[in-house]
Amino acid sequence: MPFPELNLSLGLTDNDGSVFYSGSGEGKVIVHTDTALKKHTITITISEQQVGSVNLKTHFEGAEIPAEIEVPTYQMIITDDRSNEKEVYKVTRDTFFYREQTTKKGLWSFLGLKFLAPKNFLFDNIPFEPLYENIETFDISKYRTLNQEQLTYTFQKEGQNIQIFAGDINTLKVKKGTSYFIIVDEKKGQRFIGDILYREKFLKLTPKVTLNIIKRKQVSRSMETNKEGHTDRLIYI
Predict the structure, then answer these.
(1) Span 4-33, mean pLDDT?
(2) Cβ(234)–Cβ(219) below 8 Å
(3) pLDDT score, position 41
(4) Planar angle of CA 60, 63, 65, nearest 5 degrees
(5) How far apart are CA 45 and CA 123, in angstroms?
């Protein structure tokens, strides 16, 4: 367990008459050492700024269901209060679960030949958003699980399960009832994992890890895709 900050300092002088020995204490200070034990903080901020998209496997066994779906990604920033080094990542903020297949409206539907009409696929979204403030902050230090290939922070808020995942996104199988923030980097999550471990080593004492989630102005309730998994339509709350 990290020690609290003590706010102590140690001064050594070249004067035999130090005030600690009933002397005058007028000598020049030649050594000054800050002995404070500081608990540093790593800060992860998930923003509302959309910065692209990523294809995620659906892991659904239905033959006609898209093998992957297109999910928007958002900017995520990580820093710490000692080095102030800033790194930027992409992260998902939406967790889609397949609901049903629909028929796309068009000429074939109008003619009564629905079997010839293109198929759409409807996915429900289970996001996690701040409820009352524009930004919500969590201390997630105690909720970390790490192995050689992935790093997760799993916690709860008002009965909702939340997971931050860094690793190979193709191996993640989403579970209903959990909202996921999936970190996307060019090294299958290893860049983010290495970043966290480097900062922890640099800060020496086990640091506090703070998560900030910025509320989005619009959140989709569901999404329609085509057979290839590309987004045709977002349905908003």
Answers:
(1) 42
(2) no
(3) 96
(4) 55
(5) 27
Tell me, letter by letter, the H, E, C secondary structure of the chain: CCCCCCCCEEEEECCCCCHHHCCCCCCCEEEEEECCCCCCEEEEEEEEEEEEEEEEECCCCCCCCCCEEEEEEEEEEEEECCCCCCEEEEEECCCEEEEEEEECCCHHHHCCCHHHCCEEEEEEECCCCCCCCCEEEEECHHHEEECCCCEEEEEEECCEEEEEEECCHHHCCCCCCEEEEEEECCCCCHHHHHHHHHHHHHHCCCCEEEEEEECCCCCEEEEEECCCCCEEEEEEC
Q: What is the pTM of this model?
A: 0.79
* Strand ranges of the sheet holding 144-146, from the earlier edge strand across to the other edge: 135-139, 208-214, 41-57, 68-80, 87-92, 178-184, 160-166, 151-157, 144-146
How far apart (Å, rounded) are the C-alpha atoms in residues 208 and 84?
A: 15
Contact 29, 188 (CB under 8 A): no
> Taking a C-beta distance cutoff of 8 angstroms, is the pair 82, 203 a contact?
yes
> pLDDT tens across 129-155, in order?
998 899 999 999 999 999 889 999 999
Spatial separation of the C-alpha atoms in residues 174 and 94, rounded to whole Å: 11
| Cβ atoms of 63 and 102 closer than 8 Å | no
| CB-based contacts of 206, cutoff 8 Å, min separation 6 | 1, 2, 141, 200
Question: 223 CB contacts (<8 Å, ≥6 apart)?
Answer: 69, 94, 96, 122, 123, 125, 231, 233, 234, 235
